[in-house]
Design brief:
single chain; 5-stranded mixed beta sheet; 4-stranded antiparallel beta sheet; 13 strands; 15 helices; alpha+beta
């Protein structure tokens, strides 16, 4: 099949009425076995631009999307939704290896490999409706905020069959397998309980997500990302004297941050651990700073100081800032770690009055965003120079106070 410029894959069809879906792809391969052919079915796999699945039916899926981009079905994203959206926003180039992809059923497929286009007959997503809805949200958000769509691909499997019972069985099996995610494991092991208690001591209304099916409003993984970004140099592990830690991973690697948090938790609780003494102090910082980390993230997420900056990636409603991309926020949060101090009431971020948000936004953040990041929030969130530039400024202010 890979040597053909065009091909058609079909099975014996019982219906003359067919709906056709245009499907651009990047790679496509027939992996059907002799047994598949004997059973009158075909399997095709490959990768496609994420936008290829946007208009596809989910009629044969066992459940509808739990989230719609217009917010009609659910305004709160689950941990799964947030993880998908976070990858698209922050690591689109890795989406095809971090996402499980979609399963599609069809009665026929015509492929034009020279032009990387296919026509799929009677197509329906049977696993991946949640992914489709979040891709739709991502595309709409980019359009509304005039952000160019980054290149991102999604793996796909197409089952070509007329056996409706098989389609139903595959849809059920695909949607209800017990996938245990990192957040569920940490939650089940009780590693997030003290963190939630710490946050709720000051914000009693906040519930942290402790599993991928949890619809609590606060994303635990993101909170942990913020906490690690705020960690001061004196508590940063394995750091050479005078070195500034590379905190770019706190923006783009949720799983790494959660893994790091769990490792510190384990070591802090285990007196036999070689790093117990250090990690006990670090874990206490995590708990102490958690309420303020929650406040700082949500403050900067809708910081009205970005009014007048002209940054197109800032989402606005009239003259009100509605959303600041995480790629801009995380270098700011990381620089605030310079002001972390241990007080009698625990660790706090004490920003000096001379270090104003207005100066930081207009004199530091905006030039870094336009210069090093080429006006792309994803680039800013992953560019070490942006972090180090803002941190150096904060450190100078701290030394002068």
């Amino acid at each position: 099949m890979n040597n053909n410029k065009a091909m058609s894959i079909a099975v014996a069809q019982s219906s003359s009425s067919q709906n056709v879906t245009n499907f651009p792809f990047e790679t496509l391969r027939n992996i059907s076995t002799k047994l598949d052919e004997k059973l009158n079915r075909k399997l095709v796999v490959g990768q496609a631009p994420v936008t290829s699945i946007l208009g596809m039916s989910i009629e044969k899926n066992v459940r509808d999307s739990l989230f719609e981009a217009d917010g009609k079905k659910r305004k709160i994203l689950s941990a799964v939704h947030r993880a998908i959206l976070g990858t698209l926003e922050n690591r689109p180039e890795d989406f095809n290896v971090l996402n499980g992809g979609v399963k599609i059923t069809a009665s026929k497929l015509d492929s034009d490999e020279a032009n990387k286009k296919a026509r799929i007959y009677d197509a329906s997503i049977i696993n991946g409706a949640q992914t489709q809805s979040i891709i739709n949200k991502w595309v709409k958000d980019c359009e509304e905020n005039e952000i160019p769509l980054s290149e991102a691909f999604i793996p796909f499997t197409i089952l070509i069959t007329e056996n409706e019972n098989l389609v139903t069985d595959v849809a059920i099996s695909s949607n209800f397998q017990n996938h245990i995610r990192d957040i569920s494991i940490a939650g089940r092991q009780g590693k997030l309980d003290e963190l939630e208690t710490a946050v709720r001591a000051k914000h009693p209304h906040v519930n942290l997500q402790k599993s991928e099916t949890d619809y609590a409003e606060e994303d635990t993984r993101r909170l942990i990302q913020v906490i690690i970004a705020l960690t001061p140099i004196e508590l940063w592990p394995n750091l050479n004297s005078g070195e500034i830690p590379n905190k770019t991973f706190t923006y783009s690697q949720q799983s790494k941050c959660l893994t790091e948090f769990c490792k510190v938790f384990d070591s802090a609780k285990d007196e036999s651990s070689p790093s117990h003494t250090h990690d006990k102090k670090l874990y206490q910082f995590y708990l102490d700073i958690a309420p303020q980390a929650y406040e700082l993230y949500h403050k900067w997420k809708k910081h009205q100081g970005f009014i007048g900056t002209g940054l197109k990636s800032i989402k606005r409603k009239g003259r009100t800032v509605e959303d600041v991309p995480d790629g801009i926020i995380f270098p700011v949060l990381a620089c605030l770690s310079a002001f972390a101090v241990k007080t009698s009431a625990g660790w706090k971020i004490k920003q000096p009055s001379s270090f104003t948000d207005a100066d930081l936004i207009h004199k530091r953040v905006k030039p870094a965003y336009i210069g090093w990041a080429s006006s792309n929030p994803q680039t800013m969130g992953k560019t070490r120079a942006c972090y180090e530039h803002l941190y150096d400024i904060a450190r100078i202010y701290k030394e002068l106070t």
